[in-house]
Amino acid sequence: MDFPRNRVELVDMVKRRGWTAALALMLLLVAWQGLTLFGYVQSWRLLEDKVRLALAGGGIREAKPAPVSSPEKRQIEATFFHRPQPNYTLSAIFDDRAVVNGIEVRVGDRIEKAVVEKICIGSITIREDGAKDPREIVMHPG
Questions:
Q1: Strand, coil or helix: what is 73?
Q2: Computed from CA positions of residues 41, 45, 46, 47, in that sequence, does the dihedral angle turn out positive or negative?
Q3: How confident is the model at residue 10 (pLDDT cuts 50, 70, 90)?
Q4: DSSP string of 1-50?
Q5: Is residue 44 part of a domain?
Q6: Own/partner long-range contacts of 124-131 (Cβ < 8 Å, ≥24 apart)
Q7: What is the pLDDT, as a whole number, of residue 16?
Q8: Residue 82 or 5, more confident
Q9: How many CA atoms lie within 13 A of 127 on its CB side?
Q10: d(CA 140, CA 17)
Q11: In the chain, how many domains are there?
């Protein structure tokens, strides 16, 4: 390859090779877009095949059967004296605030059946109604 010796030769070389480079880049762009479109069309065809198979099998069926609860479970749930413990999920702590069950709380705020007593770096302490000792909820139990 001969390198240009002056400005005129440089401009001439850019004119000759610039169009070639631009054409090559354009072809690469078109090929890339074509491959992307080909992938989308293939996914549509697979989806269409799945729909046809579902319809050929007698219609679309329910993916999961309805859950059936046992009689024992219904008896426990219906018992007057059985009280399930509330589940507290600590998801974030920032400074003097924490997020418990998706609700932002501070010290002294009420969460369901408990009051927030203390907010630490990785946990909070709550006192549930009627409980003697406070309960600690850790953000990442492990």
A1: helix
A2: positive
A3: confident
A4: -PPPSSHHHHHHHHHHHHHHHHHHHHHHHHHHHHHHHHHHHHHHHHHHHH
A5: yes
A6: 124/90, 124/93, 124/98, 124/100, 126/88, 128/86
A7: 82
A8: 5
A9: 10
A10: 61
A11: 2
Q: Are residues 97 and 56 both part of a single domain?
A: no
Assess if residue 68 is contained within a domain.
no
Q: Are residues 19 and 56 in the same domain?
A: yes
Query: Which range marks the domain in which residue 1 is found?
Result: 1-62
Q: Are residues 51 and 98 in the same domain?
A: no
At residue 79, the pLDDT reads 59
Q: What is the arithmetic mean of pLDDT over 13-41? A: 83
> Quick one: pLDDT at residue 127?
93
In a domain, 69, yes or no: no
Q: Which residue has the higher pLDDT, 103 or 69?
A: 103
Are 54 and 109 found together in one domain? no
Phi (first) and psi of residue 131, to 5 degrees: -90, 145
Average pLDDT over residues 120-132: 90
Amino acid identity at 50: K
Identify the helix (H) or strand (E) that includes residue 71: helix 71-78
Q: Is residue 32 part of a domain?
A: yes
